[in-house]
Amino acid sequence: MERNRVNMETMPLRRGHFRVLVAASLGQVTGAALSTLIGVMLPMIQLFRHPELTSFQQGGIACMSLIGIMIGSILVGRWSDKHGYLIYFRLCPLIIFAASIMVLMIDSIAVLTAGLLIMGLGIGGEYSLDSNYISEIMPHKWRQLMVGVAKAASSIGNIAAAGTALLLLHEWNDPHMWNRMVCIVSALSLIMFLCSLRFRQSPGWSIVHGRIAEAEDAVHHFLGDDVQIDLDRQSGRIDKADELSWRDMFRGDNLRKVIFGGLPWACEGLGVYGIGVFLPALIMALGLAPHAEEGYGHIIDSVELTTYINIAILPGFILGLCLVNRWYHVRTQTLGFILCALGLAILLTAYELHWPRWIAIGGFMIFELFLNAGPHLMTFIIPSQIYSVAERGSGTGISAACGKAGAVIGVFFMPLLLKWGGVELVMGVTIAVQLIGAAVTYGIGRKVLPPEQRHG
């Protein structure tokens, strides 16, 4: 009988691994869908419902979900280290669903603002748990790749939300129905909750807290009765069940981990959300969408081009996933930042020199391709590599919160930058931030994650 048992760390992939992967990826899909929808809804609100909205107010509304994500990542990440992952893995989708229904039912700027904040809290909690579940259940050989696949799933949210929004805009032909687009988030969060009902507590968390029987039961539930946990590999972790204090997370080598895991994620957040949320508005400002006679038609044109540009996100992630187990992650992230800056430089040059429209769109595509092949993917994978199970919830939560802090700053100031200096200022600032991300990754990453540990 013993000869028929398989080791969790070295076993081949089974159906249970993919069930975990799909369920743990839905948070990424939902978060990306929400950010895309915000970019579609804001021009409709500003042009047809509240033309009095200032650039300051637009930025404030747009960044509310990101503020929620930032707070949710820290709190749920910390609480999950103490109380386990499962309760929050089920609670977060319910929070998202309730807030989305509130926005769906009530046409109000105040309700939208509050709803985005609450949805962000739930999504932020999911962000701090998704990679943890995957990294603690997948075999060692597949761990980094599958964490990356979960992040790559966000591209499905971007593309599906933009495409569905485009269909709804054509179907409704009424900008006053903007809040009903949130039904996409409602549906995703409900699916996420239903998937979580079949989950168990994270085996890695249970082992760290000395609950070996609970961990074995969870592994058998996820993967099969013939699977056994490699306790020899886990035994060194059991003594770390008393997690680091909050202050210790920001001292010595841990401070270096926080900087490496968080600051590049913040720089990447400006590109993913600052550009991503306001992509329809930037397309209109750059003159890339054909001008329609009416404002609603112009919005539809910009959303259509946004959908096409978002399609570049998926091959970017695929390229990054192909490199996950081949390239040193510090190198991939550094080059990704540099090539992002290059794509935006091409876009800006095409705009300034009035080059053909396809060159400017190509610059956008280069930016999206290498943003997602490099920093957008790597910043999600790296925290699960540099933190042990004992503080992984806190560590990944801090990293995700730093990323969303950068996103909040980017989204809040994007309409203000457009007002102060137009597209030139937006592109210049974004290029500079991407180069800062490259410098920090290269300078600190080699110390925190040496090349010999890249597959750890």
Word description of this protein:
Helix content is about 80%, strand content about 0%. The protein has a two-stranded parallel ribbon with strand order 1-2. Helix 1 (about 15-50) runs antiparallel to helix 14. It has about 450 residues and is mostly helical. It has a single domain (about 1-445), classed as Growth Hormone, Chain: A (Up-down Bundle).
Series of secondary-structure elements, N-terminal to C-terminal: EHHHHHHHHHHEHHHHHHHHH
Determine the strand fraction and express it as a percent band. Answer: under 5%
- Give the tally of β-strands: 2
Low-pLDDT segments: 233-242
Helix/strand structural class: mainly alpha
Mean pLDDT: 86
The radius of gyration is: 22 Å
How far is the first residue's CA from the last residue's CA? 31 Å
Spatial strand sequence of the major β-sheet? 1-2
Helicity, as a percent range: over 70%
Q: In CATH, what is the class?
A: Mainly Alpha
CATH topology: Growth Hormone, Chain: A
Which term fits the overall shape?
globular
CATH superfamily: MFS general substrate transporter like domains
